[in-house]
Amino acid sequence: MVRARGARVHNLRDVAVAVPRGAVVAFTGVSGSGKSSLAFGTLFAEAQHRYLESVSPYARRLLRQMEAPLVDSVTGMPPAVALEQRRSVPSSRSSVGTISTMSNLLRMLLSRCGDYPAGAARLDSDAFSPNTPAGACPECHGQGVLHRVTERSLVPDPSLSIREGAVASWPGAWQGKNLRDILGALGHDLDRPWRELPAQEREWILFTEEQPVVTVHPEREPGRIQRPYRGKYSSARRLVLKAFSESRSEATRAKAAAFLEQSPCPVCHGHRLRPEALEVTFAGLPITELAALPADRLAALLHPFTAQEGPTGLLTADLADRLAALRRLGLGYLSLDRAAPTLSTGELQRLRLATQLRSGLFGVVYVLDEPSAGLHPADTEALREVLAELRAAGNSVFVVEHDMAVVRGADWLVDVGPGAGAGGGRVLYSGPVDGLRDVAGSATRRFLFAPPAAPPSRGRTPSGVLRLRGVTRHNLHDVDVDVPLGVLTAVTGVSGAGKSTLLGAAADAAAADPSVGRVVTVDQTPLGRTPRSNLATYTGLLDVVRKLFAATDEARRRGYDAGRFSFNVASGRCPTCEGAGAIEVELLFLPTAWNPCPDCHGSRYNPQTLEIAYRGATIADVLALTVDAAAPFLADVPAAARVLTVLQQVGLGYLRLGQPAPELSGGEAQRVKLAAELHHARRDRTLYLLDEPTTGLHPADSEVLTAQLHRLVDAGATVLLAEHHLPLLATADHLVDLGPSGGADGGRVLATGTPAVVAATSTGPTAPYLAAHLRSD
Amino acid sequence: MVRARGARVHNLRDVAVAVPRGAVVAFTGVSGSGKSSLAFGTLFAEAQHRYLESVSPYARRLLRQMEAPLVDSVTGMPPAVALEQRRSVPSSRSSVGTISTMSNLLRMLLSRCGDYPAGAARLDSDAFSPNTPAGACPECHGQGVLHRVTERSLVPDPSLSIREGAVASWPGAWQGKNLRDILGALGHDLDRPWRELPAQEREWILFTEEQPVVTVHPEREPGRIQRPYRGKYSSARRLVLKAFSESRSEATRAKAAAFLEQSPCPVCHGHRLRPEALEVTFAGLPITELAALPADRLAALLHPFTAQEGPTGLLTADLADRLAALRRLGLGYLSLDRAAPTLSTGELQRLRLATQLRSGLFGVVYVLDEPSAGLHPADTEALREVLAELRAAGNSVFVVEHDMAVVRGADWLVDVGPGAGAGGGRVLYSGPVDGLRDVAGSATRRFLFAPPAAPPSRGRTPSGVLRLRGVTRHNLHDVDVDVPLGVLTAVTGVSGAGKSTLLGAAADAAAADPSVGRVVTVDQTPLGRTPRSNLATYTGLLDVVRKLFAATDEARRRGYDAGRFSFNVASGRCPTCEGAGAIEVELLFLPTAWNPCPDCHGSRYNPQTLEIAYRGATIADVLALTVDAAAPFLADVPAAARVLTVLQQVGLGYLRLGQPAPELSGGEAQRVKLAAELHHARRDRTLYLLDEPTTGLHPADSEVLTAQLHRLVDAGATVLLAEHHLPLLATADHLVDLGPSGGADGGRVLATGTPAVVAATSTGPTAPYLAAHLRSD
Ligand SMILES: Nc1ncnc2c1ncn2[C@@H]1O[C@H](COP(=O)(O)OP(=O)(O)O)[C@@H](O)[C@H]1O
Ligand SMILES: Nc1ncnc2c1ncn2[C@@H]1O[C@H](COP(=O)(O)OP(=O)(O)O)[C@@H](O)[C@H]1O
Ligand SMILES: Nc1ncnc2c1ncn2[C@@H]1O[C@H](COP(=O)(O)OP(=O)(O)O)[C@@H](O)[C@H]1O
Ligand SMILES: Nc1ncnc2c1ncn2[C@@H]1O[C@H](COP(=O)(O)OP(=O)(O)O)[C@@H](O)[C@H]1O
Ligand SMILES: [Zn+2]
Ligand SMILES: [Zn+2]
Ligand SMILES: [Zn+2]
Ligand SMILES: [Zn+2]
Predict the structure, then answer these.
(1) Among A104, A699, B446, B494, whose CB has the most other CB atoms within 10 angstroms?
(2) Superfamily for domain range A147-264
(3) What pLDDT is attached to residue A344?
(4) Is A94 on the interface with B (CB under 8 A)?
(5) Which residues line ligand 1 (CB under 6 A)?
(6) For the complex shown, is ipTM > 0.90?
(7) Where is the ABC transporter domain (chains A, B) (predicted)?
(8) Gap between the Cα atoms of A517 and B319, Å rounded
């Protein structure tokens, strides 16, 4: 058994727990209950910390700043591997092929078993990667495009003189004047229109590689005394290319790019590879085309070769196996060349999971964050098998999970709760899944054993319609869809069917349609990336509270205004952390971390500010209150009470007012955004877009969320969402079922109508699940 | 079971092996047989590679260049932790305390439980570390010393004028002249003696923070035309401090340091800590004094507190436990402040091993490289217990080991052999230790089950004596020892007794004694750090072979001289790798690695050079021969034959002539050095010093080594060595037994004389082992 004692990470209350090794262990509990704090924050963090400490002084040096978690003891815990959703920040260079290591195999296949043009020399596998010197197209250095400056791009208006700003790419202000003065000192005519200057002179000014230094006698400007100085000239091309390739500022680089002409590389035609590599084919296709095929198609193409002897058989069989793992996890529609940043977090995690099936790791603990995210109920069974395979290979599997079908398949269950935040943080049950039947306090029990009846679809009557016509995008081809306004519409379909794509098309159409007011996307991205944003700033509550403090007698006596009580204003905040409450720690190769401020210890304010009290509490004390505690404290302040009530209604009463944005889970952030909307004045004619909003939510949380979405509709808004969660689908007024499959085999509208109609008429995979769910009511 | 199939790392010949998990597994075999290639190169490397690949994209990026080992499959292998001797390169900032993590505990103890001066504020534990801003002495920034420039240090001879070079710290050549010219331009008198310049002027020249820019009209020098230029002055202090703190060149920094006066910091007196921290004590001592105590003394001091309630009891008990682990592994004499680079590799590995006892790791495989190195037979039992504890904590332990007492205690034995290099690389046996009895081909069997009789001490008569008198160094206090010349003397005693210290004293005494000719230290350090040094270059064999190639008809026709056949000369070598045969790869945070050269594929030569053949072989072919193969090939070339014969005699017939120095193990390097000495002309009156020469050697290798050492003595040399290996000790002419313990409890001469005399008369721990060994003969 893996045993933890005295776990106190985040809201965990001195937790003791024992879970078996060599098993699939599910961690459940409502959002904010502390299940991630236990599975990731305690068990995984401790395992990682220990192993890296032991494994190498190098790793230790690298991770020096990573603190051990707050736990008295953890025993029997093997080294762990986390496949987490939230933290995964794939680099823009990585792709499905690189993450799954299939790119390497494909390159080896082309290198060793490819068909070469007659007489061509065999190429090394590196020659098939645009990211190696051996493989990069020599013309564009593997970029696929050429960046050039031309006279036209640098001097868009040749009727201007140099003094009038002919060289548009020159920086403004002093630096531009400097260049002009230097050209003057070099004897160029600053006042003739550019087009009248001799060609050779124009060429030199724009393109010379020389960097002459001359003494400049600046032109007098009224009221300024300017001395002669030595100035160095650089050509316009030189300056632009330097800014483009060397500047560390995004803005500067973007500005420079505006003066570059970009053209597809004439040698590799954008394929980034050297021509010799592009001439090698397997099964008739060059590597670029193989990598562009959806995994399922590629697998079908390779299949006939897998029985061959020698490297061809070995390599294609290995690839086919890995491709099959993608398909099993519902990712058969992805191509190897798909860039990692375009994947959803659920897709990315399942891609990593599929890759682990072939990693050969033994004796480790995999810790997963809701691997069912984005997965259609039809694919849940395959997910359960995959987890069982990792276990059969000699590992343990810990999953934080909300999908009851996956939870039911686990060997062991740890239920955390009963509530969220300070109301949670205890282990209610740890044992075989069935034992949870007897645990009265568990919010999970009900959903696991007696799924509550879904409130029926109200079948609201639309107030209008948003017409999407001829949508052609990703896998949607010339699709027509009507989105009814003033009701709740859900888009269904397997992963890759085109749900997100349809949401994107609706957003664009709504922006151009006068019958829609605002378009608001409510997603699970953080409220902010720094501790400077928090619940109180995001909801406007802090503004209300600051005024209360500024109105106290002592504040007025001292002349402290409301600004003084903002930690974003210098006068009142802690000077060390500048009001962040924490200090940013840059870690090499690791995401930035935040350490508590050594001076204000997280209070964010300077000592003088903290001398002002409102009803006996300092501003820091108030920010430390939970929503539930603040509600009575501020009950008589209408502006505050309204916000607090809505926050309680969306189930966030346990959050602290000053809880920094980075500490909130995706589900919590989503509900804060919803609360802000519910509190918002203008809700009618608003279109709310939500992409799989129940991701990361316990079924109990999904119930709360569903109720809030209907409140928005009741207030006159339109809700359009993509979703798999059946209890939410059942309440929708209208469904749009996409399918039948993912990728090229999806993207069609199979059925539309009320849940009952779609369940009865659609040929897609959602219908039977929906029908079963509706019957169970 | 952990199973490997098709292992082909280095000399491994398609090895298949299965070893149990949860066991202590010993890997044995003669030096060069391939046991490290199997345990470290295959099993550990594969486990590490897989885990880091899975654990994080960051780690993967970092280790991109680290290739997977050559093996078809490894299954059932958990993540691994290597405690290896060879690669451990501790940073100069680390110490026994930081490696063992005890420094942190000690700081927490002082911070929370220390005695503070009346009224003093409690300090954070960081305040007790000179490496943190909170703890560093503010005067010397935690350096313990102050570096200052003074007029005296910058101008050692004030009778000189500036032109004559008064400012000694000025750089020479152009830069010095430049500074002088600037001072001239600024109106200073360059020809008055320094001491006659006004004080204010001297002060300005040496110490000003200003950096004025002036136009310099350089003094005419005959034959050179020099134009006026703009020069910037920097004071002498500024230049020296800049060079000292910023230059990346060691030499420049050393030069600058010569102009700095270094004085102990008057605030912390060299203790590097801020005064407030030094005033806090525990058990009456400040942290600096606690850290300077040997582990055993510190444990005794803390013992009375371990039973207390609260943090004092917890922290002291934790420390006491960790200190006990040091003692068990024979390291009780080390203090926490002992700098890591002063530890022997054996001490360092055992320190890491002791630290692992408290790491809490579970389910990993520890891979150790001869943990018995440097350990007295009396401490072997404790080492076996420690390995068993790691196993009992849920781990597997793989040890490459030569000490038969440790091997006998293992649960499983993998014997690799039968010979070395191409003559080895097979698994002769894998199973419970006792099963090796039936394996005829094993070199290990004999030593494990029927230790061969030691050849008796010949008790040679000394030809003279080297007198050490009043030796006071480390733990030796006023010790007198006579080292007899012309015989083999061994120094004995537990780890830390003072053996190495005595060897150092003997080296110094010998250098001053005319009866000793050369002093040669034969250690296990690499022959060279780059692939440019190899067996053939080190032994001079390459010089002989180059002449053979230059003397061929074709070489003479083309005018290729002997230099052409050196890969260190531009004309003949591969231009890509410049003759290294490999390309250096810089890895962030990792030791530098070498990849094979893509152009010459390791042959090191350019194609033209390889067109010359001697007896049908190119120079690259010859360098690829093993010593055994080269012996008949070059039998008729006396200079080559001599070297090759000696290499065969020291048991290195399996090495390739061109085998790069970094590929040789410590034991192999040591034997190459011995071979070079045996081949050397002037051996008489030479004093050979060897510190535990049997480290890393199989008992069969130690037999060969012992014979070679006696050959040196027979040729008139003196051999003085420190050693634990009983079969070697038994052959010594003379023993010096130090003890009785390590550190302050050691350093005394307990007995001297023949092995029989010392075994009978010494009160130290070596005597009973030696007596038993002599009896067994
Ligand atoms: N980095 C953090 N610092 C402080 N509190 C946190 C942090 N992350 C999460 N929390 C809080 O800890 C509690 C448990 O969070 P978490 O373990 O993420 O819950 P779950 O995984 O059950 O949704 C919540 O109240 C959450 O707001
Ligand atoms: N950014 C993108 N770049 C390329 N293809 C994409 C991108 N986003 C989605 N696709 C493709 O469009 C199809 C539909 O994807 P998506 O709309 O994300 O489906 P769903 O939301 O139903 O999972 C899939 O084949 C997917 O691979
Ligand atoms: N980095 C290397 N490259 C090539 N050969 C090596 C390398 N390291 C060791 N070898 C060779 O492989 C053989 C086995 O070495 P090793 O496994 O270190 O033996 P052992 O541990 O039994 O002493 C020896 O012939 C050795 O010279
Ligand atoms: N470089 C050093 N700095 C400080 N102390 C040392 C150093 N080297 C050895 N000592 C100390 O001197 C004593 C004898 O050590 P050493 O000569 O290495 O013993 P042995 O060779 O018998 O193991 C020990 O107490 C050891 O800690
Ligand atoms: Zn190109
Ligand atoms: Zn602060
Ligand atoms: Zn100091
Ligand atoms: Zn080369």
Answers:
(1) B494
(2) ABC transporter ATPase domain-like (1.10.8.280)
(3) 80
(4) yes
(5) A 10-11, 29, 31-37, 420-421, 654, 663-665
(6) no
(7) 466-765
(8) 68
